[in-house]
Write the structure tokens for this entry.
Amino acid sequence: MTKGDGRNLVLQVDDDPTGWKCFVLRGKSAFTLRTTVDQMKKRAVIFAELKKAKITTFWCKNELRVMLEPPAVPALMGESVALRCAVWGGKAETAIFYKDKLLIANITKDTYIITNATQDHTGQYRCHATYRYSHISAEAALQEGDSEAQELNVIDGPPATTVYSTSPESLECFCRDCPDDCTSYYWYHTLLSDSFVRRRLPENTDIITIKEGGLFNCRIECGKGFSRFSKVYSYEAQSESESVNVLSIMMTVILTVLGVLIVMLIVLMMLKCRKCGGSYQVTDRRTGGDQIQLNSLPHSGREQGQG
């Protein structure tokens, strides 16, 4: 603008513009500006002029200390959504959340989490928080305030896939709501040591064998497009020593169980043989392998002193 000229600046807000204040900085001096508020159009108008300054800065801010932070994009059905009750320059000690002016949660944390979003979760949300600036002063007074209402939209998107383990060394890409004409599987792998590089794996099957640890996710190509990406599955590969230890422990357990079963089988056979009056042979190692035949007697003979 040329010196002495002016312009009308418009502040457009989503809710009530009454709580907003506008300021101007000319050189090193800052001033509060008088605004003209239009409640119907939800906006405020200020007159901006340079006066004698070469550069002039104008800005506006909301005086509310408490604000509700919704997701930056519409939430997808079936996914989790976090609504955070934030405090400028501090942290909420307690928070109460409202949906369409109805109380929905009274919790001690500053975040309300919707675990499985549906169309019923669409609406206007706001929160009421209690807080204190204890980091500034240990004796800071407890304060409270309300946030402005924020709109949450839950929309229906492509179906989501899920990655889960089918064995210690394999993963499966599964999609419950995908159509039957899905043809291609896309697997992606990210190393734990370099989380900024994600590479696509060559496998085009629903089940893959894991060759190294890292972060895995997948999506499926169906008739009219792709599914959503699955959530990341974290896998930590076992070292060779750990694999050997696990194998040796499993073999020890198996041999121990087999040994116990064999001993139990022998004991049962001996008891059965004694009850039926049969005989069994024992090899005497001291006589060079001579066999001695032992005949078991019926119980009635023993009770009468026979033998």
Q: What stands out?
A: Residues 277-307 form one domain. The first strand starts at residue 6 and ends at 12.
